[in-house]
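Field reference: sequence -> structure
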Amino acid sequence: MTLLDLIQQSAARLEEAGVAFGHGTTNAFDEAAWLVLWQLGLPLDDLDSVDGMAVSPEQQDSVNELVDERIRTRKPAAYLTREAWLQGVPFYVDERSIVPRSFIAELLAEGDIDPWLDEETRRVLDCAPATAAWPCWPRWPILR
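Structure field:
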């Protein structure tokens, strides 16, 4: 079995079980890829370089245990892996925290929200009053 086969098999199991997504992924394949790559200690952002890699029976068992736990507990994958990513930055998470996620963060990072801002909002973002010690925050670098 290849890594890609294991991801596809895991995605099918997640879909069949009807688990919900939205804490870092939006679909069964992406969630399965995250779980498989994380469990096997592989880079989360480079599936193409390892998708044909052979997976041992022990590795398959390890991944299946994690996917079983995801299905059984319905906990977000981030709680099982103890990490979540937002705009390429990893965060430690557990059941005491809200999983960091935001589709708005992607709009901000790409600058796609800037055209929707009115003149007053742009002025505030250019120099937002904060405190007497720091009377003006610089403009957000992501909203160039």
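Note: The mean pLDDT is 79.
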